Amino acid sequence: MNQQPPHFPPRPGRGYAHCNDCRLSNICLPLSLEFSDIDKLDAIVQRGKPLQRGDILYRSGEPFGAIYAIRSGSIKTWRTSRDGEEQITGFYLPGEVVGLDGPAEDSYANSAQALETTSVCAIPFSRLEALSRQVPGLQRNLFQLLSREISTDQKQFGLLGRTSADTRVASLLVSLSLRHERHKLSPTTFALPMSRSDMANFLGLTLETVSRVFGRLQQLDIIQASRKELHIVQPGALRELAHSESQNLCR
């Protein structure tokens, strides 16, 4: 297993942000960690230069060596089908972790790419495993991350299999809203990190269908959207649509 994550030099000297000083520490770190334990975790974290939009963090099939916590920006993951088509598998925001698809086969199942200027912390997995055996709170957090990843995959499969286009789009917007709220940001006004075409790919829809759904949501004054800026006018109505398995706004 690789000790050194790809594209990451050895940890920098003075001037780097300690885990305990990061504004996302209450999201990334277990609340039960003592200061001394956080120091141990910080000692294995590697921080490289920010990724620029379009930069690849890792590719499908590369040897698994690390998981990556997003400090700022956003990441999309995708895999390529046998016929060469790209299928987007997820979008990740600050405070979230990518690379959890790697441990099972010791290689990454997906590729990961920056949607905008993005800073990440690389955490070598072999060293994280060793440390988690010494720090129970960290081990629990690792299990929770893996469990959350499995749960998210299951929800996505269910979403694509049973629901209407309106419900799929609403579900994605509600998910983004809840994640912004969890990060102590506005849950009703935020920028969408992904393009409409990326949304369509992720949701198993066409770009035209996604555009029509956005148009209908705006006509009903449920949302207001301008390019990538989104304002959720009626959060309750959007949640209700997201929880419906077959409802269409326009039949």
Automatic annotation (TrEMBL):
It comes from the Bacteria. Residues 163-236 form the HTH crp-type domain. CDD domains: CAP_ED (cd00038), HTH_CRP (cd00092). Pfam families: cNMP_binding (PF00027), HTH_Crp_2 (PF13545). Residues 41-99 form the Cyclic nucleotide-binding domain. Keywords: DNA-binding, Transcription, Transcription regulation. The keyword Transcription regulation applies. This is Fumarate/nitrate reduction transcriptional regulator Fnr. The lineage of its organism: Bacteria, Pseudomonadati, Pseudomonadota, Gammaproteobacteria, Cellvibrionales. The gene is fnr.
